[in-house]
Amino acid sequence: MKNTKKCPKCQSSDIVKIKGECGYGTVNSIAISGRTPVLVSRYLCCSCGYSEEWINKEDIIRLARDKKSFNRYSKEFHDDQPTTHPMSYIILQITAIMVITLILGVLLMGLLIYLKR
User: In angstroms, what CA-CA distances link 46 with 1, 6, 14, 31, 42?
Assistant: First the structure.
């Protein structure tokens, strides 16, 4: 999508670039040991939802040199093994907190209505 300006899945040209950022609430970056994070730009098809991630060539070299925080594919890696993105755990925790907050709010509202009778 970055080079062709078209979605490889649906051929749409309605593409949005989400620039790599590093800061509070943004996750468009890869942390490497003790250095400035590597920014990851995302290209998103607004028609079908397909997305691609791209890293600058200079940053690929930085990632390749950083062996402590960047795991390369090893011979033991198999494509059929499921991988989990670290953000999925954070999203799950935030969702759980939001659901609990909603339930407590409903219970509190019911209690207030009951006490006003």
Answer: 12, 11, 6, 28, 12
71/63 Cα distance (integer angstroms): 9
Q: Is 72 left (phi over 0), alpha (psi -120 to 50) or beta?
A: beta
Q: Per-residue pLDDT tens, the chain, 117 aa: give them.
A: 889 999 999 999 999 998 877 666 666 777 776 667 888 889 999 999 999 999 888 888 877 777 655 555 544 444 455 555 566 777 888 889 999 999 999 999 999 998 988
Q: Cβ of 30: how many Cβ atoms within 10 Å?
A: 19
What is the rounded distance in angstroms from the CA atom of residue 2 to the CA atom of residue 10? 15
Coil, helix or strand at residue 45: strand
